[in-house]
Amino acid sequence: MSIDGTILDLADSVVNAEFFGRPPVSRGEQSAFPQARLVALAECGTHAILDAVIGPCTTSEIELSRELAGRFEPGMLVLADRGFYGFRLWEQAAATGADLLWRVKTNLRPRHLETLADGSWLATIIPTSGPGRQSTTPLTVRVVDYTIDDGRDNPDGYRLLTTILDPGEASAEELATVYSERWEIESVFDELKAHQRAQRMVMRSKSPDLVKQEIWGHLCCHYAIRTLMVEAAQHAHRDPDRVSSIAALRIARRSVAQGDFSPSATWPRQSGLAPRHPRPRPRPTAEPRAATPVKPPRHQTQGLKMARQTLPPRALATTPPRARNRHLNP
Questions:
Q1: DSSP 3-state assignment of 195?
Q2: Residues 173, 176, 180, CA angle at the centre, nearest 5°?
Q3: Torsion of the alpha carbons at 126, 132, 137 and 142, rounded to the nearest 10
């Protein structure tokens, strides 16, 4: 599971701007459209969005994620970027029984307790700021430090915190490999915003309640398509990541557009509706129109005009067709 946030452009209405707000841009100005912030929890393997929170763009991702973190469940392994870490949020999420694997900034200094055989180490964390932080009960975490050799002289360092304290359950290398799956949620947002909504870059609803309803409609549609993709992948014994989301979306749109509904003669009785009364007289039909005369091609009319200009009037009436052709093509 991965948690992350994104923003959505909304219709430019007064009530949307008052409720959701506009983000600031350069030179003290504001964005052209109001924006809503969406924080979602998605499965990395299936790209299915299982839960989400919608709020104004003026509310931070961490604030919205507090509501989402309270709905974590045991058995989940939740991945998060370094922008989400905070002691209170970590404490709340860990209390649900879900396992956490979050990236933190390298300047975070947990208190070292023990170095483990795989190179990771146990440590304790406390709040970095706020009143009474020294009296707060510390939490024990496992720290994984590593770098990725991508050919650069100074590769970026990664520091992960996890609630999985036993290296036998998951080694440091396995945790570093699993964290790379966090980027799958970025693909989820791309599917939702760039492909499913197509060219509708701005939500059409002009009131906050309808905006939320429209966003939830897109989320439900995305979940339904992803469910079909998983079922198709299981039937073909393939990884769901190998199924094209764009192709699945096109198939879904085509099936909906070509769907037909042909009620039978018993449909009114089955639906509880009264049968339709017969017409007292036949429906009037329009009479067929006369065929429109076809105009001759343009090159024929131009040739006729040239003949009238080059030949005398009597020659047009008495000269046989072959002679006319000789006059027209000397």
A1: helix
A2: 140
A3: 0
Q: At what angle do helices 245-257 and 208-235 cross, to 10 degrees?
A: 110
Residue 112 CB neighbours (<10 A): 11
DSSP states along 236-302: TT--GGGS-HHHHHHHHHHHHHT------TTHHHHHTPPPPPPPSSPPP-PPPPPPPPPPPPHHHHH
The domain over range 2-240 is classified in CATH as 3.30.70: no
pLDDT of residue 276: 60
Closest CA to 44 of 100, 12, 1, 73: 1
Contact between 215 and 223 under an 8 Å Cβ cutoff? The reply is no
How big is the chain, counted in residues?
330
Task: State how far the Cα of 38 lies from the Cα of 187, in Å rounded to an integer.
Answer: 15
For residue 25, the one-letter residue type is V
Q: Are 47 and 239 in contact (CB under 8 A)?
A: no
Whole-structure pTM value: 0.72
Q: Which two tokens stand for residue 223?
A: 């979940």
Rounded to an integer, what distance in angstroms lies between the CA atom of residue 39 and that of residue 114?
35
Read off the amino acid at residue 238.
R
| Domain ranges, ordered by start, for the chain | 2-240
Residue 121: what are its φ and ψ, rounded to 5°?
A: -145, 150
- Angstrom distance (rounded) from CA 184 to CA 215: 20
Q: What is the pLDDT of residues 211-247, one digit of tens each?
A: 999 999 999 999 999 999 999 889 888 888 888 888 8
Check: CB of residue 39 under 8 Å from CB of residue 64: yes
Whether 136 and 127 have beta carbons less than 8 Å apart is answered as yes
Among 178, 186, 176, 180, smallest CA distance to 47 is for 186
Cα(73)–Cα(102) distance, integer angstroms: 16
